[in-house]
Amino acid sequence: MNHPSPTHVKITTADPGAIGLFGLAIVTLVASSQKLGLTEGLGYAAAWAVFLGACAQLFAAIQDAKHDNTFGMTAFAAYAFFWFAMAANWMIKLGTFGPELAGSVDGKQLGFAFGGYLVFTLFMTIGAMETNKVLFFIFCLIDVLFLGLTFDAFGAPEFFHQLAAYAEMAIGLLSLYGCGANVLNAHFGREFLPIGRPFGIFKPRP
Questions:
Q1: Helix or strand or coil: residue 166?
Q2: pTM score of the predicted model
Q3: Which residue has the higher pLDDT, 148 or 8?
Q4: Rounded to 10 degrees, what is the CA torsion of 113, 117, 118, 120?
Q5: Maximum pairwise Cα distance, the chain
Q6: Considering only CA atoms, which of 39, 38, 36 is closest in space to residue 166?
Q7: Which uninterrupted H or E stretch holds 66?
Q8: Is 17-188 CATH 1.25.40?
Q9: Tens of pLDDT along 155-187?
Q10: How far apart are alpha carbons 137 and 10 in whole angstroms?
Q11: Distance between CA 117 and CA 141 in Å, rounded?
Q12: What's the pLDDT at 100?
C-alpha cells in the first residue's frame, strides 16, 4: 500500500515591527507630555513604560529574532530594556522601594546611561538608512532625544530638556505613522502609506 508523502508546511510569523513601533509611540507620547508640562507626575508614566515601552518592544524583538532580523531584534530589545530601567528609576524616585533608595540617587548616573544609548543609537541610525526612511528619521529623532537627555542629566541649561521633550513627542507621532503604514501596507499587500525606500548607500536597494 502506497502512503502519500508528507506535506511540508512552511510556518511563517507576522512582521512584528508594527507592534514594536506602537509600543514606542505610546510610551514616548506619555513621557513627552510629562516633560513638556502637559501632564504631571510619573506614576502612570511608569506603567506605560513597562507594558508598552518595554513589554511590547521586547515581544517585537523576540519575534524579529525568529525572522533572523539582527537589526530589528537588537533595536527593539535594547529600547525595551531601556524602558524597563526607566520605569524602575521612576519608581525609585517616587519612593516605591523605600526612602533610603530614593534619597541616594545621583542623576549623573542617568547621564552616563543616556550617553551610552546615544552612541548605540548613532550606530543604529546608520543601519536604519537601509531599512526605510520613516524608520531612519525615527532613529534621527532618538539621537536628538538622547543628546538632550544626556546633557540635561549633567545639569546643562533648560534648552536640552526642552530639546529632549519635543524630540520625544515627534518620535511618538512618527512612530504612530510607521505603525499604521506597517499594518496597512501588509494588510493590503501594497504601499498604502509611503515609508520611503532605503538610501542604497551601503547596500543595493531591493
A1: helix
A2: 0.92
A3: 148
A4: 140
A5: 83
A6: 36
A7: helix 57-66
A8: yes
A9: 999 999 999 999 999 999 999 999 999 999 999
A10: 34
A11: 13
A12: 87
